[in-house]
Amino acid sequence: ARVQRFTCEKIHAPTEYCGVDCNDNKCEGIDVCCNDTKCGLTCFTPDLSKYSDFPPTPSNVSVSDTKGRTVMIHWDAPKLNDSIYIIQERHYTGCRFSKYSTTGWAAIPRSLALEPPVPMTIKNGTWYEVRVAAVNANGTRGFSHPSKPFRSPSAPTPPQKPFNLRFSPGGRKNNSTMWGVLSWETPSSDLPVKRYSVFWSKRLAGEHTPKDKVHVMVERKTIDAR
Prior knowledge:
Blueprint: H1 8-11, E1 32-36, E2 40-44, E3 59-64, E4 70-76, E5 84-93, E6 106-113, E7 118-121, E8 126-136, E9 139-143, E10 163-172, E11 178-185, E12 195-204, E13 215-224
Antiparallel strand pairs: 1-2, 3-4, 4-7, 5-6, 5-8, 8-9, 10-11, 12-13
InterPro entries: Anosmin-1, FN3_dom, FN3_sf, Ig-like_fold
Domain Fibronectin type-III: 57-155
Region (Disordered): 142-169
């Protein structure tokens, strides 16, 4: 949530170091995009210590029950009747966590809560971080520090078999060969499918070759998943 009463006139002050460049009012959290004489368009952070009507930022964000595909998100904050909490997550699929390769922050399916804990479904083989913000009618102080990276201890399962395999004839080429389109449905998988191996066979036989004399040649091609 962006607090509209924070304007450049109220928060702007000369700065020794330039902050994050901004464009078209796109700044992280509650920062405001202002035009600084030294730095140009820069994201400035309001001094929230001057305001007492915002709920405190949650702290000590953690998770429990990581044995299955559902975890419980916890945080510390005073119980407030006029506030709700927004939970966001970002994730990365890989053997080791890399914060530079994670997705952007996004709200979890059950992103609004009145109090902890809040359940969250996770995938095997994927690392997660979560953060929480408290919001009331006046606005928010922003999101908490992210939790420690976590993942399910269960190993990811191999992808299932592709299904709904079908071939659509396309036409005939000048060299008398046929072409067509082979398609299938993406199988369910804990991890993203990177490649497919496609096998096909050719029957090498003349018109009058007995069936027991027919030679079959199998070919294979590996293609990247889209």
